[in-house]
Amino acid sequence: MPTISKSNTFQTVITTFEMSPGTCQDLVDALTEAYRTFISKQPGFIGAGLHVNDAQTRIANYSQWERREDFQAMLRSPEMREHNRRFHELCRSFEPVMYDVVETFN
Fold this sequence. Notes:
Low-confidence stretches: none
Strand content: 25-35%
Radius of gyration: 14 Å
Number of helices: 3
Shape: globular
Distance between the termini: 18 Å
Number of strands: 4
CATH class: Alpha Beta
Helix content: 25-40%
Structural class: alpha+beta
Mean pLDDT: 94
């Protein structure tokens, strides 16, 4: 399970996907399958969450990794490259960006 904390040393990755409402559920299904069968089993994976906006035109994916290198190795693997080709077919664009947590509020 992802933990949002200023004191953690994890690598946080937020990926946003832009799609039409007609392909939103297909993309959610493809992302869910990728996490279930491959991504969640990779070294350094901590947890992730998928969020869909109410218009079903955007998906935000929040994931955490033990180290930046763990995420990069997963991303460069042949299996993930294949998943990314499928994601690209289902959306207009997507972009994974690495972030550091600089502050949290309760």
